[in-house]
Amino acid sequence: MSNVSSPVSNLVVLMYHYVHSPNSPEFDGLYGPSAQEFERQLLKIQSQYFILDAATFLAGLEGQVKLPRYCALITFDDGTVDHYRTVFPVLKRLNIPAVFFVITKCVQQRVLASVHARHLIAARIGEETLRREFIRRLEAQVGPIHNLPSVPDAVAQNAYRWDDLETARFKYAVNFGLPTDLRNRILCEIFETYVGDWFKAGNQFYATWEQLREMQIAGMHVGGHSHYHEPLGWLTPTALEEDIRQCHQMLATRLSGDGFLFSYPFGKAEHFSPIVIETLKRYGFRAAFTNLQGLNSLPVQVTGLEQYYFRRIDPKDLDQYLTRSNEFDNTGPV
Question: Which of 57, 72, 81, 274 is the most exposed place for a label (fewest CB within 10 A)?
Fold first, then answer.
């Protein structure tokens, strides 16, 4: 960070996806904590960090307030319905704010994103069966192949570090190595064979705009996670412009306020670029979050493009980012 001699705040940003409870049985088998474990994690974070709301976070970036020495943001990607049914009640009860990044096409059109279809299929039939089925159907459509497009081991493992190497390579190849229409067509076929109706599942899987507005009124921030959930750094300029434009338009039309935050789909360094950041700035997104791991050291005021590179951590890594109790100062923003 560029405009002061030393950082004054250490910001940890937690990155959640699914949270399980009996209220959302369709999420059984997907990666994520239970509601009870989620609450335990929140209390642990709260004991070590001052948890910011989005407005205070942005005011801190702009130098309007001084952020605490140790502060945190709680974020969720994708806009799935468990965020409303399971997460939102816990946050309200504990009086903890959070940021929810939604895929606007999924919320608006009630259609499954391919990444969620793949999660649901794998939860039902397992990763190995999914790989076999996908390759068999791919060969039926494009002819014999030795395997999916080659993916360097380090790249795949960095993107999917909780998976074994074979699964990580498969996920990376499916998400990034094939034409979008071909990938989605094959996933739809497998989904309808093993899981159920693709369109019915999409209609049930995401929060509605009404639910998101309720969350916003209660103090949660609802921001953008793109419109189509494709790697923005790999899109053509025209496709990039259209994606960000539609995402912002949906948020501005369906929700109140402005100054939305943004989370990059997939979120590794290769999935966004300076052109992506400039497009986000042009449409008024005020900060953006990656899937790169780590703590953020903030100066008194963030300048330039720095507010579009925030790192986040998986809750599984939380313990290594906790401060020592004799260092903790829970004084709020001043």
Answer: 274
